[in-house]
Design goal:
By secondary structure, the chain is α/β, with parallel strands linked by helices. 34% of the residues lie in helices and 18% in strands. It folds into 5 domains: 120 residues, Alpha-Beta Complex (tt1808, chain A), CATH 3.90.1570.30; 90 residues, no CATH class; 263 residues, Vaccinia Virus protein VP39 (Rossmann fold, 3-Layer(aba) Sandwich), CATH 3.40.50; 145 residues, DNA methylase specificity domains (Adenine-n6-DNA-methyltransferase TaqI, Chain A, domain 2, Alpha-Beta Complex), CATH 3.90.220.20; 46 residues. The protein has 19 helices and 26 strands.
């Protein structure tokens, strides 16, 4: 009895399918102008092969994979970037240095290329003559190769840390460019610093093989001759790859531009990260920069920025102990200027032997700033990024008093300077080391928007130019025409160093930002008291309603968002309950600063601790008007500036001490309030009607075609 050999039959059918599909594919490609001689079947890879490639001389143009119709149809349009078939084909195309890759069953032909996000994306058919009609500029060619090499390393990793792996390849290439042919062979294991993670390589190929192949792909470019393009690539690569904040190029350039020292001065980059301060300093012609770094994975990025900046390496210092408070490694009185971008939310457990450390200060922002000032020479500068909480939070008052006599300038940065990695509002703090304990005048300015500038091409935002020019006038004791781009403050108050406070105090009204029939008055002079709610434990079975931050929105309290607790879980001690005409302000999260008036419907309710309870002084201001004013753009901008917190943005009660309110006459207040009430009532009626209509629509959708559906 003969047995039917299914396996052999299946293999025969597969071979017949692939042969027919290849012949059809070849005719298709020839119809697009590809010469018969450019199409090659079964092209060998390192450890496998691909069904076909299209070549021009020794360059592979297209990688081709033949798949059955069912496999091709399984790739949904929104899955192209993630589907195993397209991702595997992309990996092969990157290995072959092919820009395009093609899936075919002989009838369907799907074209792909790698998109800007590094994943496959569908593209239109590419004719043969399109490869020869456009010659890439050197800038375009360099950029394309760098993007290609990042994808190659993503698919063939050296260590598994993509950022680090790319830095190794670029550093090795720069060493080749720097030293010429005598250094064309670079061994992965001999690169200083790689031994500590050499065993982590997840690839089946050896790191030396991968590095060699990567360098072969870069053989046609000289990174040193295209350094601006490489800087641009590094900046955008970090923007796309990092999960934490890094100093953007415009900010690094601004901080370096604030230094008023000789170009041969000694600069210190205290937390070098990806080395952006180093290249920014070299681009502004400073020659001597010392860099400290705290993670091994930062080493090559720093070296890359050095080599690109000055065509040679200098010693960088690995000091992981800085993050643990080992600040004694820094030489005292040795630097002309220190650039500081320290971690925002670091707290030291150990005692720090410094003046502020001996005062019990354990906050990293404060102690790094003190260490940077100690490292500066007499008349040396410190240019530091600080969270705005440092400028106004009560916990930093002791530190502000300590640094007050050394402050030369404070520049407020845009709210979104570090987004999306951090929503923390920040400022630049400029210190100048002096033995004097007397506080001199201070220069202040505010950048309200992220500058539209490209320092790599010496293209600068007008606001940045104005700030630098005004600072230069201030330093030479020349008159400044006061504006947000520069003004002077005669004396700082340690209670608050924030730029907005001093601008409003001195210039808001004279510059005409407020109508003549409005006065600018401090909030604290308009209210009887301000307090926080209680820490409340929620109880889903409880019957005592509580107002949480979710209840408060702009001029509105939402009953639907009320939480509940029970008598057994009531807080101990004084319990805060609200009464009509109190004003509640959300002080945490994205809706911080939003305020609403308490109506009789919410009287006697408990209030969460993340809410501020304001009791207005009725002789000076109407509660309804004050609620409107607190939600105005004028006051919301102040709340933004008063925000602190490195993880969750928040307001403190002390923040309200620095808020100013535009206040008209009682008659005007009443009129404004009445107009808003009418508009809010109209809005509520529209929303109620919309909710009813939405319910009716949903009901019809649910009952469509069912028994009882009324047509």
């Amino acid at each position: 009895m003969k047995y039917f050999d299914k396996t052999n039959m299946k293999n025969r059918f597969d071979i017949e399918f692939e042969t027919q599909a290849y012949n059809s594919l070849k005719k298709y490609l020839e119809s697009l102008g590809y010469p018969n001689s450019s199409i090659f079947p079964e092209y060998n890879l390192l450890n496998s092969k691909i069904d076909a490639v299209v070549k021009s001389k020794d360059k592979i143009l297209i990688a081709v994979e033949i798949k059955k119709t069912a496999a091709i149809k399984s790739i949904a349009i929104d899955e192209i970037g993630y589907h195993p078939i397209t991702r595997n084909l992309q990996k092969v195309a990157i290995e072959l240095n092919a820009k395009y890759y093609l899936l075919s069953d002989g009838k369907q032909n799907l074209w792909f290329k790698t998109g800007q996000d590094g994943r496959p994306e569908k593209t239109i058919a590419v004719r043969y003559n399109q490869f020869h009609t456009h010659t890439l500029s050197e800038f375009e060619f360099t950029k394309e190769l760098l993007i290609h090499i990042t994808e190659y390393i993503r698919n063939f990793p050296l260590t598994g840390d993509h950022l680090y792996d790319v830095s190794i390849v670029l550093y090795a290439k720069l060493i080749q460019n720097l030293n010429g042919k005598k250094h064309n062979t670079i061994n992965f294991q001999n690169l200083s610093g790689t031994h500590h993670i050499h065993e982590k390589s997840p690839s089946s190929y050896s790191p030396d093989t991968i590095l060699k192949k990567a360098l072969e792909r870069l053989k046609d470019i000289d990174l040193l001759e295209n350094r601006i393009t490489v800087f641009e690539f590094i900046d955008s690569f970090f923007d796309a790859s990092r999960k934490e904040w890094n100093v953007p190029r415009w900010m690094a350039d601004l901080m370096v531009a604030l230094i008023d020292k000789d170009k041969q001065s000694n600069l210190l980059d205290l937390f070098s990260r990806n080395g952006i301060f180093i290249s920014s300093a070299y681009l502004r012609e400073f020659q001597n920069i010392t860099a400290y770094y705290s993670s091994h994975n930062e080493l090559y990025w720093i070296k890359i920025q050095e080599i690109l900046g000055r065509k040679k390496e200098s010693k960088v210092k690995f000091e992981p102990g800085l993050l643990k408070g080992n600040l004694e490694v820094l030489s005292q009185d040795s630097m002309d200027a220190v650039l500081l971008a320290s971690p925002f939310n670091l707290k030291f457990e150990k005692h720090i032997d410094s003046y502020l450390g001996r005062q019990g200060v354990k906050d990293g922002n404060t102690l790094f700033l003190e260490a940077a000032l100690n490292a500066a020479k007499q008349d040396g500068q410190v240019i530091a990024i600080v969270p705005d909480g440092f400028l106004l939070s009560a916990q930093y008052k002791k530190a502000r008093s300590y640094f007050q006599s050394q402050i030369e300038a404070i520049i407020s940065l845009p709210d979104d300077a570090f987004k999306p990695y951090s929503s923390v509002k920040t400022s630049l703090l400029l210190l100048r080391k002096s033995d004097s304990k007397k506080q001199e005048k201070v220069f202040m300015a505010a950048l309200n928007k992220v500058p539209v500038s490209n320092p790599l091409y010496k293209e600068y935002d007008s606001s940045m130019i104005d700030i630098l020019q005004n600072l230069a006038l201030y330093r030479t004791e020349k008159k400044i025409v006061a504006s947000k781009n520069g003004f002077t403050v005669e004396k700082l108050n340690a209670e608050n160093f924030h730029v907005t406070k001093y601008w409003l105090d001195q210039y808001a009204k004279p510059l005409g930002t407020i109508r003549s029939d409005f006065s600018i008055l401090p909030l604290k002079e308009l209210i009887k008291s301000i307090s926080r709610g209680n820490t409340i434990i929620n109880d889903s079975d409880g019957d005592i309603p509580c107002i949480s931050p979710a209840v408060i929105r702009e001029l509105h309290l939402s009953k639907e968002e009320l939480s509940f607790t029970s008598k057994e879980k009531l807080p101990h001690g004084k319990i805060h309950r609200v009464v009509a005409n109190d004003i509640l302000v959300n002080i945490i999260g994205p809706y911080r600063g939003k305020a609403a008036l308490v109506s009789k419907d919410f009287e006697e309710m408990l209030v969460n601790r993340h809410i501020a309870i304001i009791k207005p002084h009725l002789e000076f201001i109407l509660p309804g008007y004050l609620a409107i004013a607190l939600n105005s753009q004028f006051v919301q901008a102040q709340f933004h500036d008063q925000t602190s917190g490195t993880v969750i943005p928040a307001l403190n009660l002390s923040s309200f001490d620095h808020i100013v309110i535009p206040v008209p006459s009682m008659e005007t207040q009443q009129k404004i309030h009445q107009e808003f009430v009418l508009q809010l009532d109209e809005l509520a009626a529209i929303q109620a009607k919309a909710a009813i209509l939405k319910g009716e629509i949903n009901k019809r959708l649910s009952n469509l075609s069912k028994e009882g559906d009324k047509l």
